[in-house]
Design brief:
With 331 residues, the chain is mostly beta strands. It is 4% helix and 45% strand. The relative contact order is 0.06.
Length: 331
């Protein structure tokens, strides 16, 4: 009945009833799987037991898998039992090394540390190669031999407690101190760079009392050059920088004979200094071989700088010095 009256009303007044709109069906949700990159979670591998060689898997325990294996490139190696451990052979890449107690002595082979080397205990480089490591602040590496390859020292390099010689390849970044020889002069050490190399960083090389201490290029092609970076300080009592003939030396940093009674010899067939050459506090700086200076020469009163006669003449404090684009200050 009601529907009939509604239709009459619509016809009379010219209205049309519209059908209800059709609802669109909701879109279907289709979950998908996204592939993720493979990631290896670093594992801690701990030294267990007493003294032994790094290569013995029975002395290592993986803290995650509880299996015995030598540390790998994805592992943090931890030595905290107080044991004396030796690395004598083979090439072992690791993520990091922590010598919390005891000692680790590298006598042969290669220990390639991608990250940090830290030692509250003792780490010694007596042979073999320490590669790529960043030596942490507060860590001292005792060096008597072996090779440093692409290492960074935020800690210190001790070549003063015992005499020794170590070779540098792939550059050395020094942000701590390298001690060459002790202050008393009872030990002497050599830090030798093979081929063209750069000593960079913001650290210092400190010569002790023995005149045989040396920082130089040895090996590599004739004309190979050692560059001392702009923020590096080479100083102390007695030692030589350069030394061997046939090689070049570029000084962008500071070479300072700053200890009374001592002499630092700077010798090169081709010395180029854009940094600072300095004799202070009663020290003597001796320049030998062909050299040019576009940097600063500082001579403190009571200190001495000498050079070959072909460079004009030897001079001491207050004496004249002439070189194009160079500066001399007498204090």
């Amino acid at each position: 009945m009601l529907i009939r009256y509604a239709r009459r009303f619509v016809n009379r007044w010219g209205c049309r009833m519209r059908p209800a709109p059709k609802m669109r069906p909701a879109p279907r949700f289709r979950p998908t799987l996204e592939g993720l990159e493979d990631r290896t979670v670093p594992s801690t591998v701990n030294w267990i037991g007493s003294a032994g060689d790094w290569s013995d898997p029975s002395h290592w325990l993986d803290a995650t898998t509880l299996t015995n294996h030598t540390p790998t490139a994805a592992d943090d190696a931890v030595l905290d039992t107080g044991a004396a451990v030796t690395h004598a052979t083979g090439t072992d890449p690791v993520l990091s090394v922590s010598v919390a107690s005891g000692s680790l002595t590298l006598t042969g082979g290669t220990l390639d540390i991608a990250g940090t080397l830290s030692a509250a205990g003792t780490f010694k480089l007596a042979g073999g190669t320490l590669a790529d490591a960043t030596v942490a602040a507060g860590t001292t590496v005792a060096v008597t031999g072996g090779t440093l390859s692409g290492a960074t020292f935020t800690g210190d390099l001790d070549m003063a407690t015992a005499s020794g010689a170590t070779t540098v390849i792939n550059g050395l970044t020094l942000n701590g101190t390298a001690y060459l020889g002790d202050a008393a002069g009872t030990t002497a050490s050599y830090l030798q760079f093979s081929g063209t190399q750069t000593l960079s960083g913001s650290g210092a090389v400190l010569f002790g009392g023995n005149g045989n201490n040396a920082l130089y290029v040895l090996g590599g092609a004739a004309g190979s050059t050692l560059t001392i970076g702009p923020n590096v300080l080479v100083h102390g009592k007695n030692g030589a920088v350069g030394f061997y003939s046939g090689y070049g030396l570029v000084n962008q940093g500071t070479i300072s004979a700053d200890t009374a009674g001592g002499t630092i010899l700077v010798r090169s067939d081709a010395l180029s200094s854009a940094g600072t050459l300095q004799a202070t506090d009663g020290g003597t700086l001796t320049l030998a071989g062909a050299w040019s200076n576009t940097g600063t020469l500082e001579i403190d009163l009571g200190s001495t700088v000498t050079a070959p006669a072909t460079t004009r003449r030897p001079w001491t404090a207050r004496s004249a010095f002439s070189s194009p684009a160079s500066t001399c200050r007498a204090r």
